[in-house]
Amino acid sequence: MKHLLSATAVSLCLAAAASAQTVLTVANWLPPAHPLVAEVVVPMTEQIAEATGGSVTANILPAPLGPPPAHFDFAVNGVADITFGVQGYNAGRFKTTNIAELPFLGDSAEAVSVAYWRVFEAMLKDAGEYDQVKVLAVFTHGPGEIFLKSGDVASADVLQGQKLRVGGGIVHEVATTLGAVPVEGPSSKAYELLSQGVADGILFPYESVSFFKLIPQLTDGISVPGGLYNTSFYIVMNKAKWDSLTPEQQEQIDSVTGEALARMAGQMWDKADAAGLAAMDGQVDVVPATEAQIEAWTTALQPVVDAKLAEVGETGVDAQAAYDMLKAEIAKVSGGE
Question: What is the rounded distance in angstroms from the CA atom of residue 160 to the CA atom of residue 142?
C-alpha cells in the first residue's frame, strides 16, 4: 500500500510539473534554413528552456501565420507568443529605429546591434513604441551594400535611374536620394523582382544576396564603408504571456535575451556576411566605394540623416544624444567593451 501511495504521489508531482510548464509559440515567416531562424531563433528557444530549467519551452511554428508585416501585431494580439521581424515593414509605425538604420554606422553587425540594444534600453524604449509587448531584442543586419546587373561602379551617379529592390525603413529614402527608383518588397520576393527585370539591382547585406540565390542575377557590387544603410529587426513577446510567467522565469529569460540575444544576432550576421561575400567570388565583382563616391554620398545623405533624427525627436527622445550614444557604443563594442 505504501508503494502504491508513493507511486501515486510521484505521478501527481509529475503531472503537476507538466501542467506548470509553459510552452511558447514562436511565429516564423522565413525558411527554416535561414540563419536568422537556424542560428538565432532556434538557439534562443533552447537557451530559454535551459535558463528556466525546462519550465518554459518554445515551439517554432512550421508555417507562416501571415505576411511579414503582420508579425508584430501577432505578438500584440497573442496570435503567437513570440514573433520577430523588420520594423520598417510597418511604414511609419516605428520612428526610433531610424537611429540604427542611418548610413555609415559600422562594418560589424555585432557592434551595431549591441550598441543599438544599449541605446534602446537607455533612451529609445521611453518613446513607448513597444509598450504593448515585451521586447526580447532589437538588432540590425550587417552593413547594406550595393549590387547591380550593370553600371559604372566607379561613378558617384552609379545609382541614377537604377530600379533597386529595397525593404522598409530608411533604405527607401537612401535609394531615392541617390537617384535610384525604389522597388519595395520583402526579401523573399527579391529573386522574383530581379529575375523578371522589375529591379535592376538591390541594396542588401552580403548574406542575403547569397541566401536568396541572387548571385546569378547580379554582376557588380560596391562595398560601402560602414554600410549605405542598416535594417533594424525586433524579437518581441506577447505582454500577457510575459506577465503570466513567474518573476524568477522572467529573470531567467532576461538573462539570455536583451544584449546577449542582440550580440548573438549580430555575430550571426557577421558570420553569414563573410560566407555570402566568399560565395560571390568569381561571380559578382565587388569593389570598394571610391573616396569621391563616399564624399558625394555623405553630402547627399546628410539631409536624410537630419530628417530621420527629427522623426526620432518627435517621439520625445533626445535624438542627437541617442545618435551620439550609438556611435560611442559602437566604438566601445568594436574595441571589446
Answer: 24
